[in-house]
Amino acid sequence: MSKALSVDRLREKWDKYAPRYDRDIGFVERVQFGGGREWVCSQAHGDVLDVAVGTGLNLAFYPDAVRLTGIDFSPAMLEIARTRAAELGHEIDLREGDAQALPFPDASFDTVVCTLGLCGFPDERAAITEMHRVLRPDGTLLLLDHVGSHHRLIRAGQWLLEKLTVRMLGDYQTRRPLPLVEEAGLIIQRQERLKAGMVERVAAVKPATEGS
């Protein structure tokens, strides 16, 4: 397994990469994640937290009525998101912070969104636990990410690629977050595997009977 990068080292790498991110991710988005952001953001409602908001690529797809907060650990990515929000005319509270220790009280949001972020957190279990914590009862967690395929040969290729991507940007190819979502106490409403099992879309709900 590739050695994980520290949060500080990851931040340095993402700050440096930020100006190229939108251009580089464009082809991958079209080929592998086409329609994924729309699927996730169209289901958001109420007070929404976008975790690992990055350069704000989700902003164009949220319903007008939602109240948006975004968090990311890269100041350079957030600066691009601010510019994008201004260009789109969207109001969003953008903050620098760590997804593994969210700076919000319990039960603060109706919806938590994370697109292409869980693959890059040093501790995805901690990040999911925090997303659960800040959700209100009956709140919705919406996820989009690349995950380890169920196909043995494809997964072997992902494992090899992961040796490079973890070293470059802390990006894991073989994670499977769904069991961690269920372990955190969320109820899966919808789960889809796409692209030979390499892409996963999840909608889950925090039970109304559960405390914050």
TrEMBL record:
<keyword id="KW-0489">Methyltransferase</keyword>
<dbReference type="Pfam" id="PF08241">
    <property type="entry name" value="Methyltransf_11"/>
</dbReference>
<dbReference type="GO" id="GO:0008168">
    <property type="term" value="F:methyltransferase activity"/>
</dbReference>
<feature type="domain" description="Methyltransferase type 11">
    <location>
        <begin position="49"/>
        <end position="142"/>
    </location>
</feature>
<dbReference type="InterPro" id="IPR029063">
    <property type="entry name" value="SAM-dependent_MTases_sf"/>
</dbReference>
<dbReference type="InterPro" id="IPR013216">
    <property type="entry name" value="Methyltransf_11"/>
</dbReference>
<protein>
    <submittedName>
        <fullName>Methyltransferase domain-containing protein</fullName>
    </submittedName>
</protein>
<dbReference type="InterPro" id="IPR050508">
    <property type="entry name" value="Methyltransf_Superfamily"/>
</dbReference>
<dbReference type="GO" id="GO:0032259">
    <property type="term" value="P:methylation"/>
</dbReference>
<keyword id="KW-0808">Transferase</keyword>
